[in-house]
Amino acid sequence: MSMLWQTKESRIQLLKDIVAHDSVTGSQGELSFPYFIKEELMKLDYFNQNESHIKMIETSDYKHALMAMYRSYTTDKTVIIMSHYDTVDVIDFGHFESIAFDSDALHKAYNKHVDAFNPYIQKDIESNQYLFGRGVMDMKSGLMMHMSLLERAINESWPINIILLTVPDEEVNSSGMRDAVVYLDQYIKEENLKLILTLNGEPTFSQHPEDDQYYIYSGSIGKIMPSVFIKGKETHVGEPLNGVSPTYLLSQINLNIEYNKIFQDYYKNEVTPLPVSLHHKDLKTHYDVQTPHLAVGYYNIFKFTKSSESLFKLFHETVKKSVQSATKQLSSIYEHTIHFEVITFETLIEQAKERLKEEDYLSIINQNLHLDDREYAIHIIEQLLNEVYPDGYVVVTYLSAPYYPSVNSSKDKLVKHISKYVIKQMDKHYNRSTERINYFNGISDLSYVKYEHGPNDATSYEKNTPGFGSKYTIPFKAMHALDAPVMNIGALGKDAHQNTERIHIDSVSEEVPFILEKVFHKFLFDH
């Protein structure tokens, strides 16, 4: 039987076709994309005869993840091969925006305007060794390779169960993966499957500018977004001492959070990037000469082994000290003492439940559930403060969505063996130097397939995240239940989320597909 996606040329064509289907997060293309993939999979006789093995998993935001199951029936051993199909927007392509999803047209245009790029990128354009285009690297390359792998498994009747999973929304809130995990947990139990490995296909992410090294990963970095809401007092600009500017406090807080090494995490020779601000502004919506009275900031903090609970405590204490320092400085300006209450969202909720009728409290919590998760959090805190602290100066620390727990299978015996084997085979067959990294540094949905932190971590997160359980959820129970080691083996890529995003042609069409097949044969089959 002839196969569709087993040559270099056919894999590259499939990748181009997948890239050509626009699936920017939040677009109509993202909604239709899984049906396009189903049509492609239905070209295989196996799925024509077993269409029920393709599942559309509806997410809480009315998108769909696609799950395609190859069932061997000779074993309960199961591997999940996962990817995401959404991409970031294409506005960064500028004059090339109209061809951002056309790899051939984009490469031709870049060749024509090669002088517009730096020498490092010029070299890659002129080498003809790379495919360019939005999503070609991040991460439709992984989906293409997994479809090719699934086809080979079917045609050769591999003695292993394979679940191909591709999800939406990874670039924003990971609603696709968070909802898919709950479905997967239930499905695996119902089918009496034994999950032995979850394998992601994210491409390599550089460790420094102009990095040509090939990497595989035995884990994925964690991320939390601790936030601060400040309620001051408005006044006319001609009478500044009749109010207190929340942006003054926010500026002092920002100085003590951004680029502060105390928030970094370390594992062996790896270190997390420094914390940075992702949102820093007052909440005025128009211009006039009244000062703002509300301000908000939230911060990206990466983590390896540290818990979100410990990092949030550190954040809260840093904010508290910053506020104390700022109000001390203000005392030399004002004729009276300025005092701000500094509380966590958990404390604010406790106070609100004590002071409000249950129906009034629930009315506030259940308002505006349609808003963006971060905007919803801001709205809820503002409404609660209006009730609990109508005239007070208050600073509330809380956690904004999303949360990506860190995951690391570096010490797992299977992962160790696979890693050593991949490094050896890449060198032997392709003369490609390969390095294993403990934590994938690009943030990935691997964070949701295995939960390694204690119950206090989850509890602290739930209590300090506005709308947790109704507006935003993390399936901690299902994540813990899956409990299989994780790895990430993808193709050599460069410049994710840039207009020069690209994937190495030989890596994605020959090298990694060959290596993945070898890994399955040697380590994952039920021999």
Question: Tags for this entry?
Answer:
527 residues, alpha/beta, 6-stranded mixed β-sheet, 5-stranded mixed β-sheet, 16 helices, 39% helix
Structure description:
It is a single chain. The chain is of the alpha/beta class and 527 residues long. Helix 1 packs across helix 6 and helix 7 packs across helix 15. The protein is globular and about 85 Å long. The mean pLDDT is 96.
Helix and strand topology:
Blueprint: H1 8-20, H2 28-41, H3 45-49, E1 54-58, E2 64-70, E3 77-84, H4 103-112, H5 119-127, E4 130-132, H6 140-155, E5 161-167, H7 175-190, E6 194-200, E7 214-217, E8 219-220, E9 222-231, H8 246-257, E10 266-267, E11 270-271, E12 276-282, E13 294-303, H9 308-330, E14 341-344, H10 345-355, H11 358-365, H12 373-388, E15 394-404, E16 407-408, H13 413-430, E17 434-437, H14 455-464, H15 476-482, E18 486-488, E19 493-494, E20 502-504, H16 505-524
Parallel strand pairs: 3-5, 3-6, 6-18, 7-17, 14-15
Antiparallel strand pairs: 1-2, 2-5, 4-20, 8-16, 9-13, 9-15, 10-11, 12-13, 19-20
Helix pairs in contact: 1-6, 1-16, 6-16, 7-15, 8-9, 10-12, 13-16
